[in-house]
Amino acid sequence: MIEVSGLRKTYGDFAAVVDSDFAVDDGEVFGIVGPNGAGKTTTLKVIAGLVEPTDGEVTVAGFDAGDSEMRRHLGFLPEESPLYEEMTALSYLRFFADLYDVPREVADERIGAALDRLELDHRERRLGDVSKGMKRKVAIARSLVNDPDVLVYDEPASGLDPVTTNSVLAFTRELRETGKTVVFSAHNLYHVESVCDRVAVMNEGRIVARGSVDEIRERHGETTYRVFTDVEPTATAALADLDATTEAVGDRFRTAVPSMDAVAAVREAVADAGGEVVDIRSREPSLEDVFLDIVGRPMPGRYTGDRGGDSLGVERNSDSDESDEGDEGDETSATATEATE
Amino acid sequence: MTDRLRRAARRLAVSVRRVLRVARWESARASGGVDRRTLAAGVALLLVAGGVVGVGVATGVAGLDVDRDVYRVGVDAESPYADAIEAEPSLRAVPAGTSSLGDSADAVVVTVVRPGSVDDETVDAADVEDVIVRASDTRKGEAAAAAVREAVEAHNERLMRAEPNRTAAFPVTVTLRYVGRTTGFDDGATLGGSDGGSTGGSTDGSADGTGGDGSGDGGSDDESGVADGGTGDGESDGADAGGTDSGDGAAESDGSDGLLGVPSIGGAAFGADTVGSPGSITPPFPFTSLLLAFVFLVPMNFLIQAYGSSILDERTNRRGEPLLVTPLSPGEIVAGKTLPYAATAAVVTTLIAALVGGGALSVIAVAPVAAAFLGATFVGAMFARSFKELTFVTVGVSVLLTTYAFVPAIFTNVTPVALVSPLTLVVFDLQGEAVSAGEALFSTAPMAVGAALLFGLGLGVYREEDMFSQKPVTRKFLDALAVRLSPVSVGSGLLDRGLLRALGAVALLTACTIPFVFVAELLAVAVLFALPVTVSIPVLLVSIAFIEEVAKSIALYAGFERGVFGRTDGVDAGEGRGGDGGTLRVALAVGIASGTGFFVAEKVTAVVQAVGLTDLFLGRAAFADVAGLSGLPPLALAALFFAPLALHVATTSVASVGASRGRTAYAVALTLATLGHAAYNVGVVSLG
Do A148 and A48 belong to one domain? Predict the structure, then answer.
C-alpha cells in the first residue's frame, strides 16, 4: 500500500531524512519510532504529500505521494490538532467532507459513526470551547470523513490523558480490523508496541532498525542474567574478560552477565571468595531497551556533506542497562540450580 | 481534441466547484469569528455612516443648503445682476429702493447707467456704465460683498458657457516663440511638449489661453468690491488670471483636444506658465471628484485587515495544514479564501459608485486596486510571522497603495502621468469625461497584472515547508521566487530540453517582474515629477537602472541562495545541483536568460506609447528605449532596437555572477550593473 524508496529530505544543509526505505502492506499498522528530531514527522509528511522529497520515491495506494488523486485515499492526522475554533465540530467535519466531495448524507453518517465511537459529545459546541482531548478526537474523525484506505497518524496520543490515550489507541487498533492501513509515529514506545504490527526505528534521519517488535527485540536486544551472591565474587580473569560489574544490592551482590556461560564464571568466582549464588534472574529486553540500545550512540552521516560510515550498523551501547531490580523488562527468576542446568 | 476540451472543461468545473466550497465555508468561518455584539456594533456603525451619507446625499438632492439666504442684498429687479444674486443660494435679494444698508441689507448693488441711455424702465448690459457694490462696514458686510462678487463671476461663467460660439466666449491668444533645441536636462521649455499649442505660453507667460474669460481680471478693487462684468480680457496676463477659479471649464474643454483625450497640461486658466511640472503650476485640483474617488479606497483598508487575518490564521498553529492534504490545490484554496473578500470589495465598490454618481468605469477602475490590495495583503500575510508583523504589512499596503492610487490622481487635469493610477479614471468618470480604451488599459493593466503576480508570488510559499515556519521575510521572499526555478545543467548541451526549460523558467520569472518594474518606474516618474528637471532626470535614470537590475537579478540570487542553482566558493570549481557545469557557466546562462526575458517583456509593454507618456520629457527619459526610434536607417534602427538586449544581458550576467558568490558579491555586482545601466540611460537620453 505504501512504498518508500531512497527517501531523502534536506533543508539547506540539514538532512531531516536520509536514504529511507520501507514498505507498508495493506491492512497493516506500521509504527515509526524514534526520539525527537529523528525524522518521523518529516517521513509522514512526505507520505501524506505535504512535503516534497529532495530525492527518492514514495507511492501511496499506487499514486505518487502528493498526487491529487492519492489524497482521496489518504487521511492525515498531524501531531497537533489546531482546528477552526470558530466552527462547531459538526460544521468543521462537514466542511472537510465537502472538500472530498462526500455527499452530505454519507458524510453525516460517517461523522456520526466516528464521533460515536470516539465518544465525542458537544458536537454543536464551538471548537474553541472544547478540551484538547476532544479536539484530538475531532481531528481523528476528520481523517476519516473521506473513508481513506491509508491513515497517516503523527503522534496520535501525544499529550492526552491516559483515558483518552487508551481510547485513541484502541480506536487505532480497530482501524486495522476494518482493513485500513495505518502508519503511526510515536516516541512513546508503549503506544507503538501496543498497536503496531511492524516498526521502523529512526534516529537522526535514518532508519536504524525495522521489523516486527519481536524481531527487533530478538535482533537488537539480548537477554541478560543477573546473578545474586552472598559475597562479592573474586575478580578473576574470566570476569574481567566478560567486563562484568558487580554492585551491592542490600545485603547481597548483583553481577550482570550476558550468557549462561558467564553465569558459570561468576559461580566459580563466588566459590573462590567462599560464598555461593543465591539467585539468578533472566531479563528479556523491552522495546524501550532495544530503542535505547540502538539510538544510544550518535549515528554518522547526519549532514549531507558527510555521508560516510555504515549508517545501518548498530553498535551496542555498553551502558544501556544499568537498571535495578525494579526496572522494566520481562524478568524471570530461577534458582541457582535451575539456571545452571 | 474534443475529448481534451471536455476533460479541461470538467477539470475547470471541478475546480470552480471546489473554490466555491472553500469560499462558502470561508464566509461561514469569517462570520462565525465575529461575536454577536461586535456584529451588532458594526451594523450600527454602518447604519450611522449610511445615515450620514444618506442625509448628505438627500441634502444635496433637495438643495438644503445650510448657508442659504445668509446675506441680504439690495438689488433692483431690472438690474442685470438680479439674476446673479437670485442664483446664489447664500444671497437673498431685497428691493434696492427700500433697503437700508446695515439695517435691511448687508450690501446694495448700485447700477450706474450711462446718461441718456435709458428710454424705458428696462436696463440692459449695454446701458450700464458701472456697477458698485456698497457694503455695510462690518465683517458681514465684507463677506456679503465678496459673495456678490463671486455670484457675479459665476453668473458670467454660466453665460459664457451657454454661448454657442466658444471661441468668442473664451478667446485664445497664442504667441509663438521659436527657441533653439537643447539636449541638456534644463530643457524646461519642452516639458509640456504634449500640450501642443500651450507650449508657447510657457515661454513668456503672455498667452493665457482661456484665462482671460472676462471674470478673471483680478477680482475686487477694494473692500467694497466691484465686480467687473465687462467682456473677456484676452490680453490679460496669466498672473492676473491665476486669481480666478474659472478654469475648470477650460480644463475640461481642453480635455478633448489633448492626445487621446488626456486633459491638456496647459489649462492656462491657472496661470500663464501652466506647463511642466507641479513645481511651476498651480494644478486644477478636482477636489470633489478626488474626494469621492478616495471614498472607494476607504473600505479596502478594512477589508484587507479581515483578509490578512484570515490568511495568517491558517498559518497560526498549523491550522491550515489539514487543508493541504485534501485534493484541493493551493491555488483553489487561496482562490476560495479570497473570493468572499473580492466579492465584498466588488459589492461595496458598486454601492459607492451608485452613491457618488460613478458609473461602470469607476467600478472597473477600482477593481484592480482592490485586487492589488488583496494580492499585496496575501503576500504580506504569507510572509508575516505574527499578527504583529501582519499589522505592519497591512498598514504598509494601505499607505503604499493609497499613495500610489491617490497622489497621481490629484494631477488628473494636469498631466497624463496621472493615468498611472486607476483612480484617475474614477475622477474622469465622476467629472463626466470620456476615457479611451487605451487609457483605461494603461491605467488598470499594470495594477491588475501586478495583483495577479502578487498572488502567484504568495502561492509559491503556500506549502507546508514555508507556511508554518518562522523564516524571516527575506528568506520567504527568496523561497517564493526560488520555488519557480529549476536546476540548470549547463553540461548537458545547449539544446537539452531540461536546460531550455530551466532557462525558460528564469526568463519567464524575470518577465513577470515587468509590471512591478513598470509600476515602480511610473511611481518614480510621478514622485520625481514634482522636482526640478535638473535634479529629477539624473535621479530618475539611476533609479530606473536600479529598479530594472534588481528585477532582473533578484530571482537569480534567490536561485543561488536557496540552492536551486549550484554555488561554490570558487568559480568553475563546483557543480550545480543537478547540473554538471561550473558555477560561472550556470551564472552566465541564467544571466543571459534573465536579460533576454526582461528584454522581451519590456518590448511587449510598449503600451506607454499609446497614451502619449513618452511625449512628456520625463516620460521620454524613463521610456526612451521604447520610443522615438523613427527616422533612422534600418541598420541603426536594428542596432538601437537590440541595444537594450545587449545591455540587459550584460548587466544581468554581471549581477548573476555576483549572486553566485554570495550576498556581498551580489551587492557589489548589482551596484556595478546599476551604474552601467545608468550610463546607458544617460547616453540614450542625450542622443534622444
Answer: yes
Residue B288, φ and ψ in degrees, nearest 5:
-60, -50
Boundaries of domain holding A242: 224-283+327-340
B306 near A CB under 8 A: no
Please tell me which residue, B427 or B286, carries the higher pLDDT value.
B427
Task: Give the range among A139-143, A206-210, B378-382 with minimum mean pLDDT.
Answer: A206-210
Give the percent of chain A with pLDDT over 90: 14
Q: Which residues of A touch B464 (CB under 8 A)?
A: 45, 50-51
Does the pLDDT of residue B347 top 90, yes or no?
Answer: yes
- Check whether residue A141 and residue A30 sit in a common domain: yes
A60: part of which helix (H) or strand (E)?
strand A55-60
Query: Under 8 Å CB-to-CB from A237, ≥6 apart: which residues?
Result: none
pTM for the whole thing? Answer: 0.66
Q: How many domains does chain A have?
A: 2
DSSP A285: P
Of A12, A69, A80, the CB nearest to B317: A80
**Chain A contact set for B566 (CB, 8 A):** none
A33 and A175 inside one domain: yes
Do A204 and A269 share a domain, yes or no?
Answer: no
Q: Is residue A301 one of the residues assigned to a domain?
A: no
Q: Report residue B117 CA to chain centroid gap.
A: 57
Q: Which residues of B touch A45 (CB under 8 A)?
A: 464
Lowest mean pLDDT among B25-29, B220-224, B309-313, B384-388: B220-224
Q: Is residue A292 part of a domain?
A: no
**Chain A residues with beta carbon closer than 8 angstroms to that of B318:** 78, 80, 82
Nearest by CB: B322 against A11, A49, A76:
A76
What was the pLDDT predicted at A324? Answer: 38
- Specify whether A188 is located in the same domain as A241: no
* B643 closest CA partner among B669, B617, B624, B620: B624
Residue A305 lies in a domain: no
Residue A227 main-chain phi, psi, to 5 deg: -105, 120
Write out chain A residues lying below 8 Å of B317, CB-based.
Answer: 80, 82
What is the per-residue pLDDT for B492? Answer: 64
Same domain (yes/no): A49, A179:
yes
What is the residue-wise DSSP string for B487-548? ---GGG-TT-HHHHHHHHHHHHHHHTTHHHHHHHHHHHHHHHTTS-HHHHHHHHHHHHHHHH
Residue B116 has pLDDT above 90, yes or no: no
Q: Is A99 in contact with B327 (Cβ distance < 8 A)?
A: yes
The residue of chain B with its CA nearest to that of A49 is B325
Point out the domain boundary residue: A203, A218, A233: A218
**Averaged pLDDT for residues A182-211:** 84
Per-residue model confidence (pLDDT) at position A221: 67
Interchain contact, A82 vs B324, CB within 8 Å? no
The band of B623, judged by pLDDT with boundaries at 50, 70 and 90, is low
Cell of B473: 521575510
Q: Are the beta carbons of B322 and A69 separated by less than 8 Å?
A: no
ipTM of the complex model: 0.73
Q: Per-residue confidence at B230, pLDDT binned at 50, 70, 90?
A: very low
C-alpha cell at B71: 446675506
Say yes or no for a CB contact (<8 Å) between A71 and B327: yes
Beta pairing partners, A151: A75, A182
* Cβ <8 Å between A78 and B33: no
B316 touches chain A (CB under 8 A): yes
Please answer yes or no on whether B32 and A87 come within 8 Å at the CB atom: yes
Contact B25 A71 (CB under 8 A): no
Kindly state whether A9 is in contact with chain B, defined as any CB-CB distance less than 8 angstroms: no
Average of per-residue pLDDT across A210-229: 79
* Residue B335: pLDDT over 90: yes
Angle B332-B333-B335 (CA atoms, 0-180°, nearest 5)? 65
Helix (H, G, I), strand (E, B) or coil at A23: strand
